[in-house]
Design brief:
Layout (H helix, E strand, L loop, with lengths): L1 H7 L23 E2 L7 E2 L2 E5 L31 E2 L5 E10 L7 E4 L11 E6 L6 E2 L3 E2 L18 E2 L9 E5 L15 E8 L32 E2 L1 E4 L5 H6 L5 E3 L6 E5 L3 E7 L5 E8 L2 E4 L6 E8 L3 E8 L1
Antiparallel strand pairs: 1-11, 2-14, 3-5, 4-13, 5-12, 6-11, 6-14, 7-8, 7-12, 9-10, 15-16, 16-19, 17-18, 17-20, 20-21
Length: about 325
Amino acid sequence: MNKVLSIFTLVPFLSLAQSFAPDPDEVGTTAIFKDSSIFVAWATGVDVNRGYLNIQTPADGYVSFGSDLDAIGVATGTEVVSLGDGGSAIITFNRPIANGLGPDFAIFENGFLDNYIELAFVEVSSNGIDYVRFPAISEEQDTLQIDNFNFSDCRYFYNFAGKYRANYGTPFDLEELMDSTNLDVNNITHIKLIDVVGSIDALYGSYDSQGNIINDTYPTPFPSGGFDLDGIGVINELPLDVMTDKLGDLKVIPNPSQGLFSLVIEGRGEYTVTNSLGKIIKLEPFNGPFEIDLTDQDTGVYFMRITDSTERVIQLIKL
């Protein structure tokens, strides 16, 4: 009897529903191969906040596999950065992501099998401060814990990163967030990933948009535990001419620069500069043209929000 039970746990536990897109080899999949010509750009900046090896035993420490650089550029299927239980990552791009026809970007994980799934929530921002989460849904059962010996099925999950195996990206469509407050779906500058703690213990587990506890691989108490970020491919990005038009009567000279930016603008208002993590670097009023000095900041992309008669967000690029 014990042997029968042991064998049973090595196969997927059948749930009541399988409503969503199947694995990459099946008809109806939404998976996108990493070498697809549909991708026009890839992530250029990543900052990771590592999570625990096991959230139930925090004294064991944090995951350590990979580095931020492993999530930049084209997905490889092997070079990843691990988030750990409840860990997160904020990802930035050279140009904003825009809401086009169909999916607008895809996120890659490195699952070695179709049914070995490690998930993450996906949130987007158009200013680096306000984030909106894609409404994720889980139909996986919540009575038998998914672990490293019994597996799941990608058809149980929707709007989670990590749904598909290595080399195949999970797509996301900004049209779903069109009516969100404090979000411009045609100017997405940041993507945030938050590891799903797959425990079915209510004290530690994560919940989907419908209040269901999410059952995915847990525990994973090793250096590469949790969601493993391989890359984010951009499908629709804001055209350069649109970026110029968005400035209206505002001119930034030069941009990019070595850290000194001159802004030509009429009227008065307030400006806020944040780094790629959303940390406020400067917050000051203005009255007519002004300068921003970022020479004491690291090389990278910064985001300036101008609030006057309108509100605009502009990228400042320090070389």
